[in-house]
Queue: 2 jobs
Job 1
Amino acid sequence: MVENDLIPYGLNEALSDEYERILTDGCVPARVIRMDRGECDVATFTGIVRARCPRSDSELSGLCTGDWVGIDQQSNVRQLLPRRSAIVRSSVSGRSEGHVLAANVDTVLICTAADGDVDLNRIERMLALAWESNAQPIVVLTKADAAEYVPLDEVRAVAPGAVTLAVSATTGVGLDVLTATLEGTVALIGPSGAGKSTLANALLGAEVFATNAVRAGDKKGRHTTVHRELRPLPGGGTLIDTPGLRGIGLWDASEGIERTFSDIESFAGRCRFGDCAHRSEPGCAVRAAIDSGELTERRLESYRKLAKENEWMRARTDKRLQAERERVWKDITKQQRRNYRDRSSRR
């Protein structure tokens, strides 16, 4: 039987049974609701406790808000339980590794302010990130009450398979429709100034997260949210607010790109040549779609850019893994030589 204190944080009978089979002896399930340096707040059967995280150089590292973990009686995190999904971008450090923004997410709200620069390229990039995470994306045009024109049709055209809504957290317009589409754990992503924290407060029904006004001149916001934090939603499910994203580098997002640009993928399947570059080849269905107005040149260029970036990152990662394997083999070879010398000296 699932204890009540963990139900608001997403634990159900199915998860409870699954985790009971794989938890280390002496550990109980908990969910990470906020990460700090070396410690984290976790929800447990008996409430929220402060837990100690493993060292960053240990096998158990890279914990993130939304993770399910096993903790012992001394509130030490001992085990990372299997993730159902994860929003991963390339590391802002420039290293060839992924950075998990949120884990075990079911719905991703891609937020952009309707009263500012509605950047279709950036929306496509965030869609690729969301689709790759194994969650369902919803594009939310926030601050609809302050916009002279809300480009719903333009955004819907670049978000096949995803619901696109215009909402106002100030007036409440569209919030009922948005709430009806939410499922499970919901994560908000988007740039600073997109109104994520204001929307999160509206969905939570309380002023939980701090908010700041954007600059009047360029509509840019400041990083008001500095931590990823998980909270229960009043109607069921949970919500994770995240800091504004300045950089949205892709990390092994081939499937996410394919789903984001499913229209281009569909047209490409009708090209005469299988290796068509969609430039000037005869029988190119993609060029024909652009000529007829079904596709735009901007969208094709965005597709090319993201695909090229993803291939570059994947190649870079492969080189890093190869270098690590070579280093391991060098260490093994050195140890074998030392062992051989030791045996020779004892003869």
Note: The first strand starts at residue 28 and ends at 35.
Job 2
Amino acid sequence: MTAVEPQIIEVADPDPLEVGTTATTVSAKRSRVPWRFLAGRAAFYLFTLWAAVTINFFLPRMMRGDAVDQYLARNRNVSPEAADALRALLGLDTDKTLLQQYGDYLALLLRGDLGISLLHGMRPVTEVISSALPWTVGLVGFATVVSFAIGTIGGAIVGWRRGSRLDSLVPITTFLSTIPYFWLGLLAIAVFSVNLGWFPIGKAYGVGMSPEWTPEFVGQVIHHGALPVITIVVASLGGWMLGMRNMMLTVLDEDYIMVAQAKGMPNNRVLWRYAARNAVLPQIQSFALSIGFIVGGTIVMEMVFSYPGVGKLLLDATNAKDYALMQGVFLVITLSVLIANLLADLAYAFLDPRTRQTEA
């Protein structure tokens, strides 16, 4: 019998472009759900939420006066008994300590009761915020997404073609971003509304219109919102483009980009699958913050264009010392920022596994 020689099976080394970079799919061992990472993030954001709610309660009460004092200054025929009853209804009862009021506030908050707004005729705060929230989210949210998309894609292309004429877009957009927003908004109104008459001067829709899902009303909303959207995009485009362009210049010097080009991969694949995918990671965190602060709105924008959003609502509530409305708006803004950051952490961990491995 002749001995059978063992056969040696050669296994090719894995392609570093397929498994060795953060821009591609990781191995199955590392793709399991990072429960420890998620639990740590959830605990951190729950503690942050409690701290924000606590500050949200005590901070307005450090101001001089309250909503009842403001109301009594405008209505001098209110009896002292009615004023005391009004304070008790608003949670401002002087017979209770701040800690007792804080406990009552948390109990109402857990039931979803944000109180009533004296500024808006004793309407529930949830109802007041719900009527203003869609305008801010629709306008500022759409403008933020558009500016992020244009700035990120444009910055990736400018960084890829560094040294070309496209580099001139960066200083132009950066210069526009340095102009104060109120000045840019007033200039846009003077040129495009007053002189050219292309857009309305302000408001969310025309006089005499009532909110309803009709083609005429939707057209009015789009027409009135076009100029504020364009102004926000122009004012914020420079930051997105500059940040993405600088990250592209850093990523393009990495070894895996050179290896991909040496293997003869198409430029579009190297640009979008490897370079841009890694360069966009820092942009995601900034975008999450922007998405979170969308709910807060742009107070200056809403003042310049007389837009009925949450930003203007918060300003009016602060001037009137309407604690319940102030706390409700701050709470909604805080929740939106925390949720946006949590989603950004998850997206960041998905795109860059090193993040969850390090923190877990």
Note: The first strand starts at residue 116 and ends at 117.
